[in-house]
Design goal:
This protein is mainly α and about 400 residues long. Helix content is about 70%, strand content about 5%. The chain has helices at about 5-20, 25-50, 55-80, 80-85, 90-100, 125-145, 155-170, 175-195, 200-215, 220-230, 240-250, 265, 275-315, 315-340, 360-390, and strands at about 110, 115-120, 125.
Length: about 400
């Protein structure tokens, strides 16, 4: 075989390898999503009956948004990192504008005193879910452009944190303190992983303490904090939801009461298919089920973060920071959602990714995973091509 034939064979081999998706991302994501369909079916039938709708209407809606998320993920998969990096500059402004929409009369929708949604005609959309991904892309583009000075310049460190603080302030107006804290943590985590010194992060962190304290002193938030500390003092009021979740977790013991056999989801636990689906998992599948779910999330998040590390080593800073951001986003929401259900964190209203019902979250998590798969494929392609370029040079 001559040199030209050998090169052609390598190109054909590369093409086959490049089509493969990272199994350590898509397999746990698919398993978690499939498990989520089962748990939504298990936890929502009684809720649907009480609402006077078809027994599996929540499941059908969940599957529809899962399909939309998969479609958006496929679109981002085909977009690629270079196209996204080119458009990353205006995404910060777009994130700010999106968070203003729910506050506008005629566009924003108020539910239970909160204005977090916009009306799209056939459905409502919680804009903060899109803002999470926009923030990640905007900060990733900025850090990639400022890579040389991100480790030493306080101003370079401060800019992404100020963007996160602005978005958090808008979220507090909706109000949505849980998502505000997630955005701040994502921004801070990405800047830290970019190599910013701890001392550059301490001053903004200390400066945010008074503002967060003032936000926490709002009467309903303060009630949540005091209820979290001692829910038994108000078992029929503010402490009701947490106590019912803890009862569900306690009933599950080691292996659970059996799939579909939860009592708490029938009449007692509010939002059993959404914010408190983790408690239903604990009741029906026990500690074993909880550990299995958290292990699947650990594999998924860990693989995404390791992909970021690999991209940084290959000199692909934008891809690295995007993967870091997505990993932080998913990991934080899993920790917060499970912590709320287990009674170790105050109630925040954050969904459990890929499992809880909630069309906005499902669509944007699907988009983020499609993007993560694309970036990881580009990294793997670079690894394959690099040694061959050296051989044929």
């Amino acid at each position: 075989m001559n040199a030209a034939s050998t090169r052609q064979a390598i190109r054909h081999g590369e093409r086959g390898e490049r089509l493969a998706l990272d199994a350590a991302i898509w397999i746990p994501a698919l398993l978690i999503a499939a498990f989520g369909v089962v748990m939504v079916a298990s936890s929502s039938v009684a809720i649907a009956e009480r609402a006077g709708v078809a027994p599996f209407s929540f499941v059908a809606r969940h599957l529809l948004f899962m399909a939309i998320g998969a479609g958006l993920g496929a679109a981002l998969y085909h977009a690629g990192s270079q196209a996204l990096e080119r458009v990353s500059r205006p995404l910060a402004l777009l994130a700010v504008l999106l968070l203003l929409l729910p506050l506008l009369p005629g566009i924003g929708v108020e539910i239970n005193g909160a204005r977090r949604w916009i009306e799209l005609g056939v459905t409502r959309f919680q804009v903060v879910e899109a803002v999470k991904l926009l923030l990640i892309l905007a900060i990733a583009g900025y850090l990639a452009r400022q890579r040389a000075s991100a480790r030493g310049s306080f101003w370079v460190t401060l800019k992404p944190l100020l963007l996160g603080a602005l978005l958090a302030a808008l979220l507090l107006k909706q109000p949505d303190m849980g998502s505000a804290l997630v955005l701040l943590a994502i921004a801070g985590g990405m800047v830290l992983l970019a190599g910013a010194p701890w001392r550059h992060l301490m001053l903004p962190a200390l400066g945010s303490v008074p503002l967060l304290t003032m936000a926490a002193l709002e009467p309903y938030r303060w009630a949540r904090l005091t209820t979290f500390i001692a829910p038994e003092k108000d078992p029929t009021g503010d402490g009701y939801q947490l106590l019912q979740a803890l009862i569900a977790v306690g009933r599950g013991e080691l292996f659970g009461v059996g799939l579909g056999a939860s009592i708490q989801k029938l009449f007692y636990l509010p939002e059993a298919h959404n914010d408190f689906v983790f408690a239903v998992i604990a009741e029906e599948l026990g500690l074993a089920g909880v550990v299995a779910v958290l292990a699947a999330f650990a594999v998924l998040v860990g693989r995404i973060l390791l992909g970021g590390l690999a991209a940084e080593r290959l000199g692909q800073p934008f891809s690295a920071f995007v993967l870091y951001g997505i990993g932080l986003w998913l990991g934080l929401q899993v920790l917060i959602s499970s912590g709320v259900n287990l009674g170790v964190l105050p109630t925040t209203g954050l969904t459990l990714p890929l499992i809880s019902t909630g069309g906005s979250s499902m669509v944007m998590v699907g988009a983020a995973l499609g993007l993560a798969l694309r970036l990881k494929r580009e990294i793997d392609d670079e690894r394959l091509a690099a040694p061959r370029r050296r051989v044929w040079a």
